[in-house]
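Give me the fold.
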Amino acid sequence: MSADATLLIRNARVWSGGSAVADADAVAVAGARILAVGREADLRAHTGSAAEVIDARGGTVTPGFTDAHIHLVRWARARAELRIDPDGSRADALAAVRDHLARHPNERVVVGRGWASDRWDAPPDRAALDFVSDGRPVILHSRDFHAVWVNSVALERAGLSRATRDPDDGRYERDARGELTGVAREHAVRPLTALEEPISLAADLDRVRAAMECLLAYGITAVHDFEGAAEFALLETVAKSQGPRVRVLMHLPHDGLEQALEERWTSGTGDDWFRIGAVKLFADGTLGSRTAALLAPYLGTDERGMELMSGAELRATAERAIAGGLSIAVHAIGDRAVRSVLDAVAAVPQPVRARLGLPPRIEHAQLVSAADLPRFAELGVVASMQPSHCVTDIPLAGRDWADRLDFAYPWASLRDGGAMLAFGSDAPVEPPDPSLGLQAALTRATREGQPPGGFVPAQRIALDSALSAYTDAPARIAGGSGRWGVIAPGAWADLVVWDADLAQTPAADLHRVRPTMMVLEGRGWDPRSALDAAPVDRGARGG
C-alpha cells in the first residue's frame, strides 16, 4: 500500500462479499478507488493530515447498492404525476383525479398511477372518469403498470372504439353491450400511452437528474434499467455527464432486437458508467390483472392467465438473440411462464450460451414450480426479484394462489438450489428505497408485522444473502465483478455508511435504516438533504 488515503471511514462494521469483513473497522480510499480495508490503527499510517475522515459511529459500511430492476425515467416522471392510493376505494381514486385536474389546469394530457381495483365495490369504467374530468385525456396506470384506465376523450384520441379488435398480446375490457369500458390490459395499452408526452432530453433531463440524486440518497449507486430507445439515449447522456448520476446497465426493448443485431451490439459492452444489458421480453402478465400465466387455474376459476409470447416464439427469439451475443431478460411471473422461459434457454446449445457476456435472467419469478427451481442454477439463469412485491401482493397471492404458496416468491428455495438472486424494486411499481426491500426479504411481512411470522416464512432469507442480492450479485451480472458492488482494494469507492449496525438491527426495523453518508468514486457527501426534499414514496400496501 504505497499511496496515501484521501478519505478514511472509521469506527465501522465493514460488510462485503457475503459477510462482515473480519477484523476490519475502517476503509481507506485513494482518489476514486478503495485503497485498503482493515483496522483503523493500520490504515492511519497511510492517511495524510489532509484526508477527509468519516466517523461511521458503529454503523455498517456496505458497497453501493444496485437496483437490479427499475424503470428510472418512468419513475422520475411518476414522482411528479397524479398518485392514486392502491389501498383506496374507487371513490378515492376519482376524487384524486378531480383534485389533480383542478390544481393542474395546464396539463394537456393527465397521467396518473397506482390504482388497484381488486377490493373495489365496482370496476373502473370510463363513465366514472368522464364525470370527474374536464375534456382532457386522462390516462391512469394500474399499480402494476400492466393496465390503464382512461376516459372517453383518451379513447377517441387514440382511435379506439367498439370495432377495435384485441391485439394478440392484450385485451380491451368491454361491457355487456360490447362497448369499451376504458380499461386496457397488457400490450393493448400502447395506443393510449402513445398520447403521453414523448420522452426527450429537453423534457426529462432535470427530472432524471433529480431522481438519480434521490437514488443516491437511498444508497443506490447503480441500476439495471428496463425501458425503450428514447430512455436509452437520455440515460446514456446523464450517466456520462457531470452531476448526480448512477451507473446504468441498460436493457434493450424487444422491438430493438433487430437493430441491435444489425449494429452488432453485444451484452456487457460499454464502460463502468453505461453498458448494454439484455433484450427484455415478456412471457406473461401480472398477478394483479390475473394475466400471469399459470400451470393450474387461478383458485376458484378456470383462468390460467395470458401468454404474451408463445413457447415457440420465446425459443426462436432467445436463439436469435443469444446467437448474436445478446442475452435475454424475460418478464415471467406465473409458473407456466417461468417454465416456458427456462425451456427457451435450455433450447440454446450450452456452448452458445457460454459465449454470452452477461447471463440470461428471469424477471420477477413470483411463482415457480418445484420441478423448475433447480433449473435456474443448472442453466445459469439469474433470478431477478423484488422483495417488496411479496409484501404488497400478500392479499392477492392468498386469494389466487392459496393452494400453491410453498413456492411463491421463492427466494430461499432458489438460493438453496444454487441460483443467483439479484434484487430490485420495479419502481415506479414499488418505491426504490432498498431498506424496504431488506425488511421484506428478512420478514416477508408488512411494516406492521402482518401476517405474524411472515408470509410463507420458509422462503425468508438472512441479511447476508439479501445484502449480496443488492450489491455483489447485480454487479457481477452487469459485468462489473470486482469493480463495483464490493469493498476491496482497487474497486471503485462507491460506499454507503448506514446509520445503524445492520446485523444488530431487528429485521422488522430494517425499513427505518438510512444512509448518513454516501461515497461515490471517492467523494463523500451527506444524502439526508436530498431525501428531505424528495417526494414521499414509501408505498401503501407495505404499511
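The first strand starts at residue 5 and ends at 10.
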